[in-house]
């Protein structure tokens, strides 16, 4: 979904900053956008980490001069439908860090 959103924004003239934990996927999306005449830059980032989110914003400002729109789309990760009793502390913390803290990190920029 993030790739489709980025490609559509670029087609409409936006200069896009692509961010994901998966650099290979970012490279594919950037190549796709550039092949269609658009502009994109990539940042490897885990939205659960405030420092990574700060780097995303810095990349937008450094590369394109400003940040106008944020698409808060990174994964809503799952716990493989474990019951509350089966869910380990590690899985709970990871899901909360990405789905809750990560979203909040991006909303608070
Ligand atoms: N596909 C659907 O039907 C559907 C329905 C409802 C909601 N959603 C939500 O929409 C969003 C996108 O869904 P999708 O189907 O494209 O998911 P997807 O799993 O295909 O893609 C998610 C992307 O997020 C990246 N990612 C994972 N953890 C990350 C992190 N911590 N920081 C940065 N990037 C991270 C992954 O590398 C991947 O590229 C998710 O939040 C999902 O929960 C999807």
Plain-language structure description:
The model has no long low-confidence stretch (mean pLDDT about 95). The chain is elongated and about 50 Å long. The protein is built from four helices and two strands. The chain starts with a helix and ends with a helix. The chain is mostly helical. It has a two-stranded parallel sheet. The chain has a single domain (about 1-105), classed as NAD(P)-binding Rossmann-like Domain (Rossmann fold), CATH 3.40.50.720. The structure holds nicotinamide-adenine-dinucleotide. Nicotinamide-adenine-dinucleotide binds near residues 1, 75, 98 and 102. Nicotinamide-adenine-dinucleotide binds next to α4.
- Widest sheet: strand ordering: 1-2
CATH topology: Rossmann fold
- Helix/strand-derived category reads mainly alpha
CATH superfamily: NAD(P)-binding Rossmann-like Domain
Ranges where pLDDT stays below 50 over 5 or more residues in a row are none
